[in-house]
């Protein structure tokens, strides 16, 4: 890019909420009524007709205003910053944000503040990819290994992964990348779907959506479990009958169980040949996951969507506590920290199957998985990206699924930009949907009061 003197002049934040709880979309054993939401951020610059950077943190309703406030707290680190410098080295901003000597007390490097950092850092990567005229997956795959290593914070990691080891992984990973890029553009990246499996769906809906998923080319579906064992047995039986023996069935307990319960419950479902059990216990319990892994084999253990940071992932891998690493594009501090996790997983030879769904998680995480395939591990064997078929129409560059595969995005950026009309409609509480909803509820209460 030609040098400019452009600066960041605004960090716009929005509390975006969708009423998904009304159809029980997203329902699971721990979160029965989620309203999928996003603390959305837009970076604006003073360059005429210049692209903007878009990012967000995903939440599920109440508390999204807290997440927005956390993003707002990072404004001083961005206003007036050189756009050229930001895009040339997002890692510098990442280190400044996680190293803020007062804000870091709210973590450090975990929770709401860390997710806010991820939203802002991802917005910078979106801006960088837009300015380069490339989708993020290609920007990362084309980058020099030395530059990528410089984007990673190796503090607290070097007992498991050193910069030299990471550099060697990336140098080896480049071999054959051109041919893999052609294959990716032709066939896409394998996906699995959770759309049939929400806990609030009845058996007829589960069966109908599972049959449709197989017809659409998916070779793996996932069911939410953990609220009632008899219900889970019935639902797993219905799902297995719908998809047949040749399609993988994954299970997700969303942290519901203690360790002994996780082992008992998973083994009680073993007759349905589950491929993995996801988040069987607390996302922070490394040794608990290791015990579950021993107790439920050959069923695999998957976790990571709620892992707070790269250090937690490091411990899961060091302890042999996980068979499937699940990164999340907005839980940790953005692209930089997810690069660290991808490198750790590659070092330990554990496949990464990203968590997605939510608001825009599919749009983001596809870029990271495609980079991993092209320029790091070189394989999609036993690797799939989660897919959920809702809320994509609110994005300017939504995911495209063909024959059970993510189609590689071609538009520049990180696929993070929401449609202006969706922002206007679903910003809480003043968007047109929410104001109309509040008015309807108030009218119903008045009618009810008169009837009483």
Helix proportion range = 40-55%
List the domain count as a whole number: 3
Major sheet size, sense and barrel closure: 5 strands, parallel
The strands making up the biggest β-sheet line up spatially as: 5-6-7-8-9
CATH superfamily of the largest domain: Enolase-like C-terminal domain
Q: Rounded to an integer, what's the Rg over CA atoms? A: 22 Å
Look at the structure and give the mean pLDDT. 96
> Low-confidence parts, pLDDT < 50 over ≥5 residues?
none
**CATH topology tier name of the largest domain:** TIM Barrel
Second-tier CATH architecture of the largest domain: Alpha-Beta Barrel
> Helix and strand string, N-terminal first?
EEEHHHHHHHHEHEHEHEHEHEHHEEEHH
Approximate shape = globular
* Percentage of residues in strands: 5-15%
Number of strands: 12
Distance between the termini: 68 Å
CATH class value of the largest domain: Alpha Beta
Number of helices: 17
Look at the helices and sheets and give the structural class.
Answer: alpha/beta
Quaternary status of these chains?
Answer: single chain
How would you portray this structure in words?
With about 450 residues, this protein is α/β, with parallel strands linked by helices. The chain has three domains: about 10-135, Enolase-like, domain 1; about 170-420, TIM Barrel, CATH 3.20.20.120; about 420-450, no CATH class. Helices cover about 45% and strands about 15% of the residues. It has 17 helices and twelve strands. The protein has helices at about 65-70, 85-90, 90-100, 110-130, 135-140, 145-150, 165-175, 175-185, 205-215, 230-245, 260-270, 285-295, 310-320, 335-350, 360-375, 420-425, 430-450; strands at about 10-15, 35-45, 55-60, 190-195, 220-225, 250, 275-280, 300-305, 325, 385, 400, 405. Strand 2 (about 35-45) and strand 3 form a beta hairpin. Helix 1 (about 65-70) packs across helix 4 and helix 5 (about 135-140) runs parallel beside helix 15. It is globular, with a radius of gyration of 22 Å. The termini are far apart. It catalyses: L-fuconate = 2-dehydro-3-deoxy-L-fuconate + H2O. InterPro entries: Enolase-like_C_sf, Enolase-like_N, Enolase_C-like, L-fuconate_dehydratase, Mandel_Rmase/mucon_lact_enz_CS, Mandelate_racemase_C, Mandelate_racemase_N_dom, RHMD-like. Its cofactor is Mg(2+). Its EC number is 4.2.1.68. Keywords: Lyase, Magnesium, Metal-binding.
């Amino acid at each position: 890019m030609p040098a400019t003197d452009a600066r960041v002049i605004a960090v716009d934040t929005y509390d975006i909420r969708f009423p998904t709880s009304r159809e029980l979309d997203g329902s699971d054993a721990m979160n029965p009524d989620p309203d999928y939401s996003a603390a959305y951020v837009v970076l604006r610059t003073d360059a005429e007709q210049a692209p903007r950077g878009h990012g967000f943190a995903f939440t599920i309703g109440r508390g999204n205003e807290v997440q927005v406030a956390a993003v707002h707290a990072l404004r001083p680190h961005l206003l007036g910053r050189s756009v050229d410098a930001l895009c040339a080295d997002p890692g510098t901003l990442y280190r400044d944000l996680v190293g803020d000597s007062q804000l870091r007390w709210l973590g450090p490097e975990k929770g709401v503040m860390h997710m806010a950092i991820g939203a802002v850092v991802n917005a910078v990567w979106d801006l960088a990819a837009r300015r380069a005229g490339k989708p993020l997956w290609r920007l990362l795959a084309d980058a020099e290994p030395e530059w990528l290593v410089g984007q990673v914070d190796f503090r607290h990691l070097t007992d498991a992964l050193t910069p030299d080891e990471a550099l060697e992984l990336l140098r080896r990973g480049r071999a054959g990348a051109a041919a893999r890029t052609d294959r990716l553009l032709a066939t896409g990246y394998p996906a699995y779907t959770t759309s049939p499996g929400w806990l609030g769906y009845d058996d007829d809906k589960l069966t109908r959506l599972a049959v449709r998923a197989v017809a659409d080319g998916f070779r793996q579906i996932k069911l939410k479990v953990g609220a009632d064992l008899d219900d889970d047995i019935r639902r797993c039986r219905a799902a297995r009958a719908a998809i047949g023996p040749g399609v993988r069935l994954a299970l997700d307990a969303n942290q519901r169980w203690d360790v002994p319960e996780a082992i008992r419950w998973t083994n009680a479902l073993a007759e349905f040949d589950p491929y993995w059990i996801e988040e069987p216990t607390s996302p922070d319990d490394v040794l608990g996951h290791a015990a579950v892994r021993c107790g439920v084999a050959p069923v695999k253990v998957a976790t990571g969507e709620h892992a707070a940071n790269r250090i937690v992932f490091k411990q899961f891998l060091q302890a042999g506590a996980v068979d499937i690493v699940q990164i999340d594009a907005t839980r940790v501090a953005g692209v930089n920290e997810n690069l660290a996790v991808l490198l750790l997983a590659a070092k330990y030879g554990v496949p990464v199957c990203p968590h997605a769904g939510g608001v825009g998680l599919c749009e983001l995480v596809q870029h990271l998985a495609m980079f991993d395939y092209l320029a790091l591990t070189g394989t999609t064997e036993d690797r799939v990206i989660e897919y959920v078929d809702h809320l994509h129409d609110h994005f300017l560059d939504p995911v495209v699924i063909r024959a059970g595969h993510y189609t590689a995005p071609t538009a520049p950026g990180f696929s993070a930009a929401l449609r202006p009309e969706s922002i206007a409609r679903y910003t809480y509480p003043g968007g047109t949907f929410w104001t109309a909803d509040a008015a309807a509820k108030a009218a119903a209460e008045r009618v009810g009061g008169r009837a009483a």
